[in-house]
Amino acid sequence: MQTLYADVIVDITADALDRPFSYIVPESMRENVVAGSQVMVPFGNRLVRGYVIGFHDSCDYDPAKMKEISSVMTGEDTAEAHLIALAAWMSHYYGGVMAQSLRTVLPVKRRVNASLERKVYLSSQTEARAYREKLNKRQEARKRVIDALLKQDGRTAAWLIENCQTNMQIIRGLEKDGIVCVLTSERFRTVVEGGSETVPPDKLTQEQTLAVRHIRMEWAGKNRPVLISGVTGSGKTLVYMELIADVLAAGKQAIMLIPEIALTRQTVERFVRRFGKKVSFLHSRLSDGEKYDQMRAARSGDISIMVGPRSALFTPFAKLGLIVIDEEHEDSYRSEMVPRYHARETAIERARIEGAHVVMGSATPSLHTTYRVWTEEYAGVSLRNRFGNAVLPETVIVDMREETARGNRSIFSEELIRRMQESLGNREQIMLFLNRRGYSGNVTCRSCGYVVKCPHCDVSLTRHVNGRLVCHYCGYERADITECPSCHSSYIGGISIGTEKVEEEILKRFPTARVLRMDSDTTRGKEGHTRILGLFDRGEADILIGTQMIVKGHDFPNVTCVGVLMADLSLNASDYRAGEKTYQLITQAVGRAGRGDKRGCAVIQTYQPDHYAVKCAAAQKYSSFYKEEIAYRKLMKYPPTGFLLAVLGSSEDEMHLAKGMHFLRKYIDRIDRGNILSAIGPAPQSIGKIRDRYRQVIYLRYPSPENLVRAKDLLEEYIRINSGFAGIRIEFDFNT
Ligand code: ADP
Ligand code: ZN
Ligand code: ZN
Prior knowledge:
With 736 residues, the protein is of the alpha/beta class. The chain is built from 21 helices and 30 strands. The protein has five domains: 5-105, GIY-YIG endonuclease (3-Layer(aba) Sandwich); 115-187, no CATH class; 206-383, P-loop containing nucleotide triphosphate hydrolases (Rossmann fold, 3-Layer(aba) Sandwich), CATH 3.40.50; 394-439 and 497-634, P-loop containing nucleotide triphosphate hydrolases (Rossmann fold); 643-734, Alpha-Beta Plaits (2-Layer Sandwich). Helices cover 33% and strands 21% of the residues.
């Protein structure tokens, strides 16, 4: 039998990842050693623990000098081993090298300096006073430090530096003179405030109780991933918390994934109120050190619940019982960096490895997940009612083509103006949501709503700077148009307005209204979001204008009117998921109205009032939407009925990239004789150039992922051995 070699890493720090060592796999172990296995290997003159990250059947070294793996550990359930097995799956499934996957699942293994806290104490008050008297005019900083400590001893050095215009040298100087002493201690950074007292949980409603019971039954049986589809305000969070409590009671731990944008103070407080100090949080505003400490606390068992965005999925819990994915449809669950993983699939794989459960929730589940509930790969439960007296708002669709015809050229329809007046009159609040998602230069007729689409792919064409209209799937191109092919109107072109424009118009109409604007300009800085939402929550403003960032997760009971401006803009995105995204955005926006006791109203302004995504969202008819959308996906072989692999190429040299992608397509056609992969492209990516790198894409479609993974492996190999691809970066993305 040919010798088999294993790549083993023996020290799991970030620096060690790139230097695996090769060992011979003894024949007796071939069955047991897999990627991710924990093994003992000879290293120097000791035996050390290592992890297998890959295999090969040849070796550059003298085989006579190679050592054998001495034993493979089985049944060893350490968090690390599980995460490494997960990394092995990620690099196989999503592509890229093992080291990249390991860095993703073991993100804080870089050495972070422990955080130190220095407290400064006076050695003796009398001596300090005497010493102070003798200081000269140029020693004011020393005086300030002594004065501060005389007022309150034991201040931290950080406090003194910030408040006494001093620095560490001056404090050390005082220490040398024997006036103060500095006590240093390691500080364990906690990010959760309070939590010493918890309050008993709310009593579940009947519907919530049923949902929990249903899920427990699933766990006791097939243990499929479960989708909770629950309208906004139905109390999904309470159901999650109930399930988390189950898992904790069984001595296990839970991970709660939330899109970063929804990880607000409100969410944090709810979890801390219920679970106290067992909870921790991860979010991008924490320093590396703080994140590291949260991971350490999870590993040591100090905490049992980790709440956070995508990266929290890799919390090293030893006995993981449950992963919850809230707002599972959110795009932020897909990673844009290699490995381009999706948190949902990766969570399901982690749960499989560790025998844990997965629960997902959304008011607007992704087609991906719904499709799997319908095919019974996942289980599904639903919450149809809002909690308490809250009812879903009345929805009105306004046809902006008619407003145009009537000569109303303003951003606001007459209906919306009337509703806003009503709410303002009742001292209630208004949210105006400006749909800007996917806006990338598509061409729409303002008189009839016609959108210019690709004849082959049924997605919108994008206008490029050179005036050509281009399809980002197949590369189809045509000349620009100035007259609508459908109604011959000349009101055809790009539609775009900004939040500032909306604010301006409002102040013209309602000069006394207090308006807050939330967009990337006003939310710069650490607490931008929180500040604006806080002001609105306290009733300091009547109207909140914003892009999609205002529609998520925030509960404002006094909002009774929601306006959705340009609801269909996202329909025109050059993306096969445009309909799905539009349905989600409208539903989430509408869900913001009438969270309290008062029935709200949502006005949806659109140029395409007859589009099923708009109509179904307004009527809150998800299953009708699903049926229409899935029929379109089936017809076009788009996910979730099939799988899509994007082969993304980028290079600084446009010609070189075009040539490389051309040859890649030729190679695909060669390995895909029967054309079962239905390749399309190459075409420019939706953003054709970023930081001087040109970008192109080829798509492959297939009914199951296995063939695509195999195609990816073949392409990776082809690119590796062909010097022509030097200078071109090729990445693979299964989440398009
Ligand atoms: P969702 O996440 O489904 O949109 P939430 O979990 O935010 O809904 O619940 C909406 C509101 O209803 C929250 O303020 C929550 O505290 C309240 N709520 C939900 N269920 C209950 C319950 N059984 N008892 C008391 N309050 C509840
Ligand atoms: Zn027209
Ligand atoms: Zn096309």
